[in-house]
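Hello forum,

I keep getting stuck at the same step: I have a sequence, I want structure tokens, and every attempt I make locally crashes halfway through. Rather than fight my setup again tonight, could one of you with a working pipeline run this one for me? It's a single chain of 185 residues.
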Amino acid sequence: MAEEELAAPPARPPAEAVDGEPPRRARRLLGLRPRRHGRVDLGSRLLRDQLWTLALLALFILLLLVALTATTRAPVQEWPAWGYRTLLGVFSFGVLGAIFSAARSLKGSSLRARIHAQVLDERVTLSRAVLGALPGLAAYAFLQSKVLNLGDADNSKAFAIAFIAGFSERLVLRVAETFAGPKAK
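Reply #2:
Ran it on my machine without issues. Output:
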């Protein structure tokens, strides 16, 4: 009897494949890997799509700038301050600044974000790029009204200011808050 007690319990028979499929536990274990890799692949694809969207938008804006300068013989500095060419140029440089900012903010850490957050990031990234024109136009208005005094306000300087404002909308907000005064409670 002592020999019977020392004997190992009978081993469970290995799970057999049913209809050519691996056992359930093996399927579950094997199924984890593709999901993990699929998530990273989907995340990289979303990041790539964001960058392509920004690149295409930047190309469109650059083509708009080329069209603006190619359709007139007057140099940029001679365009009227509130003419449509100047305003489209300011708009374009504001968008380019926002595109550059949005592209810089896309980081490798976004690959570790959940997929629904990355999809949301794609929409936010695109809207940031498009809405970058607003701070650019606001900065141009500050420059033209002499609220922002940077010396001689020619169009080249206005385009540079619009790019900076599109890149950092917080800068425009700080300038506006400076002139708005303390907040009333």
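The chain has a mean pLDDT of 75. If your local run keeps crashing, start a new thread with the error log.
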